[in-house]
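Structure (tokenized):
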């Protein structure tokens, strides 16, 4: 390579090609690393978000189960109140029909 000598005023085609390849490899490596790094960070954020979504789904399932249990208890209480209401109505009707 004649470009290394002190008296060189111009670069040869071969040296220019090698310098272009070296520069392209460096720029390509930097861009590739930057893309990899961005994708890695994005992937980590997505994993964190998915973890939070799973926890929210678990809490949601627990809340739905508690609501279902509450609804069952409410239904049982409501049925018991209706049964008492029927008994009271029958007793009132019995006392109205048969006043001693």
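Design, position by position:
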């Amino acid at each position: 390579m004649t470009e290394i000598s002190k008296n060189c005023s111009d670069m040869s085609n071969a040296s220019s090609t090698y310098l272009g390849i070296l520069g392209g490899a460096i720029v390509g490596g930097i861009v590739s690393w930057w893309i990899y790094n961005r994708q890695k960070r994005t992937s980590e954020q997505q994993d964190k978000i998915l973890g939070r979504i799973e926890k929210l789904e678990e809490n949601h399932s627990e809340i739905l189960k508690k609501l279902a249990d509450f609804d069952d208890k409410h239904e049982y209480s409501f049925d018991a109140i209706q049964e008492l209401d029927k008994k009271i109505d029958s007793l009132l009707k019995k006392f109205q029909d048969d006043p001693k």
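Reviewer-requested clarification: The two ends are 131 Å apart (CA to CA). The CA atoms of residues 45 and 87 lie 63 Å apart.
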